[in-house]
Amino acid sequence: MTFRNELTDEELGWIIRQWGEAMARRYPLEPPRPHRFSWRFRLRMERLCRRAEQEEARPIPAAGGEGAAGCPRPRQGHRLSPRMLAAAVLAAVLCSTAAMASMRYFRLVREEHPKYSTIRYEQLEEGYRPGEFVAYHLAYLPEGFEQVQDRTTEIDHVETYENPEQLIVRLRQKQIDNARLDVDTEHITPEVILLNGRQSAWYLGNDSLKTIYWDDGIYFFSVSGHLSKEELVKVAESVGKK
To answer: What is the pLDDT of residue 31?
Structure first.
């Protein structure tokens, strides 16, 4: 039995069409488990994509004469080696990944002060266009808590709950370009945790009011309350759209 290790133009075209049709499913714009890329990685990928575009725009000598608009006429039966095919697919995947990473317009900044920290976001590049604000809500609360506040504006949303002992649980949601929060960090270092096994967040275990905060690239969220860490994590993991 023999195996071919080369592809014709027609076979390669079919593979590219099939791969393109599966792009939306394989690489969704909002994946269920979005990956966080570093700023340095994003810059490297953007340089790679620009270099690929420059190479693509460079004139290629025609081996079989030129066709319309001065473009080289493709040669029938031209074959690509497996190495060239793999390089082409890899470049396409990297550019697609860099494009998704470039959608990350902000990065979290934590300003340390003697008794507290300020959480805010720094814009990395132009092009951010905020969409219509969609309020998220808490789907889980410990027994005995009742809602005492529910306020939504064009850029933020606040829900506050209280129990008979006057202990509170509060959800804050802000559009990421307007996000700012002061938290008590005296003698406390934020602890990185995972919500629902995939969402990175920061936990502040103060003696009284504990806080968990995170973002999804569009909104900034914080959940605080007079609860144990385990209960506060459950509350934070329940945040979602109605």
So the answer is: 52
Q: For residue 191, give the nearest of 217, 215, 212, 160 by alpha carbon.
A: 212
- Say whether 83 sits in a helix, a strand or coil: helix
Could you tell me which residues come within 8 angstroms of residue 129 by beta carbon, excluding any fewer than 6 positions away? Answer: none
Q: Measuring CA to CA, how many Å separate 10 from each of 59, 61, 76, 183, 186?
A: 23, 22, 9, 61, 66
Q: In what order do the strands lie in the sheet with 180-184?
A: 106-112, 116-123, 180-184
Is 0.85 surpassed by the pTM of this model?
no
Residue 223: exposed, middle, or buried by beta-carbon count in 10 A (0-12, 13-18, 19+)? buried
What are 149-184's pLDDT values in tens digits? Answer: 999 999 999 999 999 999 999 999 999 999 999 988
24 burial type by CB count under 10 A (0-12 exposed, 13-18 middle, 19+ buried)? exposed
41 closest CA partner among 102, 122, 86 = 102
Residue with tokens 């202990």: 167
Over its C-alpha atoms, the chain yields an Rg (Å, rounded) of: 26
